[in-house]
Design goal:
By secondary structure, the chain is mostly helical. Helix content is about 50%, strand content about 0%. It contains 12 helices and 2 strands; from the N terminus they run H-H-E-H-H-H-H-H-H-H-H-H-H-E. A two-stranded parallel sheet has the order 1-2. Helix 3 crosses helix 11 and helix 6 runs parallel beside helix 8. It is globular and about 60 Å long.
C-alpha cells in the first residue's frame, strides 16, 4: 500500500479548526480544538522524566528510629508522589488528545529481555490496554526481575516499570494489585543495600547509586498505590 493510499484511508475532517495565538486563552470551541490539534501533533515518541523528582534536599535526612526502622524524609516522599501524579495526569491527557494514534489495534505482545534494554517508547506505553499493560508488568516481575542468582536484569527495566505504572488505571483490581505488589517487593530487594545502610549523610548523595531507582519505585508502590504494609515488611517506617 502506498503513502497516498494511507492518506486516502483517513476520514475527512468533520469540524473546521479555528486559529489560536499561542499564550492566549481560547475564546470559543474552535480555538480550543486548535490547541488540542496542535498539542496532539507534537506528542513525542520518547519522554525524559524530570530527574529532579529523585533529588534530595541537602538537609533531608533519614535516620533510624528507636526500633531500628528507616524513616524516609516526608519531603522526599511527598515530592516523588506529587511528581509521579503529575506525570500520570500528563499521560492521561495525551491519551485523550490523540486517541486515534494511541488506541488503534491491540499491540501484539512479543517481548524478550532484550526489549527492556532500550528505553520505553511513550506512544507504545500509552497504546496498551490495561490487560496488555499488566501482562507486561507480570513478565517484568517474573522474568526481568527474577530472583535467580544468575539472572541478568535488563538495562532499562526500571524505566519500563516507572512508565507502565504511570498509565495504570485506579482503582486497581485485586489481581492486578498483586502484580504491582510483586514488583514492589522485587524493587525493595534490589535496593536492599540502601534500605539497610542509609544514613543521613549518604541519603543526600544516593541518587547516583544504581539501586536508587528501585528504591524510588518501591516508595511509589507503597505510597502512591497505598501498599503501606510493604513498608513494615521491609523495615521502613511510615512518616
Amino acid at each position: 500500500m502506498s503513502e497516498d493510499d494511507d492518506i486516502d484511508c483517513y476520514p475527512p475532517q468533520a469540524l473546521p479548526i479555528g486559529t489560536h495565538t499561542a499564550g492566549e486563552k481560547p475564546q470559543d470551541g474552535l480555538q480550543y480544538l486548535s490547541i488540542v490539534h496542535s498539542e496532539a501533533a507534537h506528542i513525542p515518541d520518547v519522554m525524559s522524566v524530570d530527574r529532579s523528582m529523585f533529588d534530595l534536599a541537602p538537609d533531608d535526612s533519614a535516620p533510624l528510629d528507636q526500633d531500628g526502622k528507616l524513616n524516609f524524609p516526608p519531603g522526599l516522599i511527598n515530592k516523588q508522589v506529587r511528581k509521579f501524579s503529575e506525570l500520570r495526569q500528563y499521560c492521561s491527557r495525551m491519551q485523550k488528545l490523540h486517541p486515534s494514534k494511541l488506541q488503534g489495534e491491540e499491540v501484539e505482545l512479543s517481548f524478550s529481555k532484550k526489549t527492556f534494554d532500550k528505553e520505553p517508547c511513550l506512544s507504545l506505553v500509552l497504546s496498551f490496554s490495561q490487560v496488555s499493560l499488566f501482562e507486561v508488568l507480570d513478565y517484568v516481575q517474573d522474568v526481568c526481575l527474577s530472583a535467580e542468582e544468575k539472572s541478568r536484569i535488563p538495562t532499562c527495566v526500571a524505566s519500563w516499570i516507572f512508565s507502565l505504572l504511570c498509565v495504570v488505571d485506579k482503582p486497581v483490581p485485586m489481581d492486578y494489585m498483586a502484580i504491582i505488589r510483586s514488583v514492589g517487593r522485587r524493587c525493595a530487594v534490589l535496593s536492599s543495600s540502601l534500605l539497610t545502610s542509609l544514613d543521613p549523610q549518604n541519603l543526600a548523595n544516593s541518587s547516583d547509586d544504581p539501586s536508587f531507582q528501585y528504591l524510588v519505585l518501591f516508595i511509589l508502590v507503597c505510597h502512591y498505590f497505598e501498599q503501606f504494609d510493604l513498608l513494615d515488611e521491609f523495615g521502613v517506617k511510615t512518616p
